[in-house]
Structures are given as C-alpha cells and as structure tokens.
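We store amino acids, tokens; thus:
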Amino acid sequence: MAIYPDLKEKTVLITGGASGIGAALVQAFAEQGSKVGFLDRDEAAGVELAEKLSAEGRQVLFVPLDLCDIEDLRSGVEAVRQKLGPITVLVNNAAHDERHATEEVTEDYFDDRIATNFKHQFFASQAVLPDMKAAGGGSIICMSSISWMAGFGGMALYTAAKSAVLGLVRSLARDFGPFEIRVNAISPGWIMTKRQLDLWLTPEADAMRKERQALKRRLLPEDVAKMALFLASDEASAITSQNYIVDGGWV
C-alpha cells in the first residue's frame, strides 16, 4: 500500500475493527504509523488482532463494547482519546448484513437493524467532533454499500440503513466543513471477508459476481482499506461530501 506520511502518529478510531473489512482497516492504518483505536463486540477477535499488531510494534488499542449502546460507545471513544490522544480520523465501519424476510420483521428487530447499521455512525461522529474542531480539521469516513444501489433483496433494513448513510454524509459534510472536517462515504461491493466466504459464496453466486463485475477478480478487504487511507490523508484535503464506490464495476 501507498504510504501517507501525514497519517503517522494521527489517532484513528475504527468501529467494527475486529474482523473483516474492519480488521483490514486497523492493519492498514497501523502500518501507516497511526495510533489506532478500534471498537467491536467480538472480544476474542479484537484481543487477538490487538496482540498481533502490538507484537509488531504498532500502536493499537482495542475496546470491547456494544456500539448499539450509545453510552457504551461514548465511553469507548473517551477511552481511545485518553490512551492515544485526540481523534482526528474516524472510520464508521461497523455493520451486519443479516438477511431477513419482510413478513417476519418485528418492531424490535427493525430498531435493532437500524441501530446496528446506522445509528452509531451519527453518534460516533458527534463524539469525535470536539477533537477535530480543536485540531483544526479531520476526516470522517462512513461505510455505505452498493446493496441499495443494486437493488438487492432479502435485507430491506440493511439496504435502507446503508442508503441513509449517504444522507448523513452529505449533511455532516456541510455542517462540519467550516471546521475543515471532511466527511465522505465508501460503498463496497461484494468484498470477500471470511463471513462472506463462509456464508454466501457458492459456485453459482461466484459466477454471478464475475458476470456482474467489470473487473473479474474477487475483491478483498484491503481494496477498501486503500480507499480509506487515501480519504483520511492530506492527499484528499479538497474532497468531502462524496461517495466512493469500491465494487470492481458492479453498479
């Protein structure tokens, strides 16, 4: 990956960083020399990743918590701030693409899916705002998805939440712009995380993916991390309120 010197020693906060795309983000920022705090409810995976990177001499802090609990989220942000310093890069990555039939959705399940895939992105952005204002700028990156653009079925609440991310990004970019805080989105396509490989990648699905993508190779978490590094860096200093699609040409 490219090296962005301005990312060295910056404090970066990543939600959902214990596995999948999130783990690739943690690894990529750590390799830039950033001080990386990451939040996740998967304690075992988070501890394992933090220990691995710490053994490599990286500056990382894992805080286990439930991002759906907003007070817990705020406490986690404060823990990162106290240990690693003011946060000037935030990657709102955490999500869960659980499939669901519309007929079976209850009000409680509806609220849970929105909390899991959208609500925490707003409150994490709110929590780091004072740090970025005091620093004279920062970068917030919110993960959307091509699922709503491509009209995927079978997970209406997930696609609704991911489309809402774009509205959030546009508004926050306008509100935060006077403080030199940039807010952008990344919309990944079908990224081959372990979860996707274990649950969804059948030979038939892989053939469909290959047909739909302009680029025929499988996309990896590192492909998303490369875009996040760029958007977090000073190389993207004039870029805000945008959505970058990393899908190999699917949509």
About this structure: The mean pLDDT is 96. The first helix runs from residue 20 to 31.
